[in-house]
Amino acid sequence: MQAAEIYRRASADFGARVHLAEGRWDAATPCPEWDVRALVNHLVNEERWTPELLGGATIADVGDRFDGDLLGADPVATFDEAAATALAAVEAVDPEQVVHLSFGDRPAREYLTQLAADHLVHAWDLARAMGEDEKLDPDAVDALLAWFGPTQKLYREIDVIGPETPVAADASAQDRLLAMFGRTP
Length: 185
Description:
Number of helices: 7
CATH architecture: Up-down Bundle
Largest sheet: 2 strands, antiparallel
Order of helices and strands: HHHHEEHHH
Number of strands: 2
CATH superfamily: dinb family like domain
Shape: globular
Mean pLDDT: 95
Low-confidence stretches: none
Radius of gyration: 16 Å
Structural class: mainly alpha
CATH class: Mainly Alpha
Number of domains: 1
C-alpha cells in the first residue's frame, strides 16, 4: 500500500472519532498530558504543518506559527478543514520528494507514513478516551506494523514515543502496533 493511501485511511479513522467528540472535549486520553481537545489540536497542528513541509518549507521557515489553540469555537469544522487541506497536499506530492524534518531530510513517503502512524494511534487514543469502538483500519494497521518494526528504534532515540508495552505472543496486529507505540491495548 502506498504511503498516501495509508495516510488517507489513518486520517479517516481519526476524523471519524473527532466527529464523536462533541460534549467530551475534556475527557482524559491515554496520553497523560492531553485531553480530547488537546489531542485533536495536536493533529490539527500536524495537518497545518503538512502542506508547508510537503511544499518544501523547513522547520525554521514555519517556526511557531501553528503553536497554541488552533481549534477555536468549532473544533470539528476546524479539524475537517485542516484534514482536507493536508490530504490534498498528501495526494499531490511526489513520494520521493525530499521533506525537511526536525531530525533530517527524508523522502515524502517516510513523512507521510509517520503522519499516518500518528493519526492511527491517536484514533485509538480518542476511541479509548470516549469509550467508542477502538477497531482501526486493519490494512493501515498491517502496513504501519511492517514499517514501524525497524523504525521504532529511531522514534525512541528522538524521544517521541515511550517504551513498548508488553502484549501476549498471540496479540492481534493492532495490539502489537499499539504496544510498540507505548499503548496498553
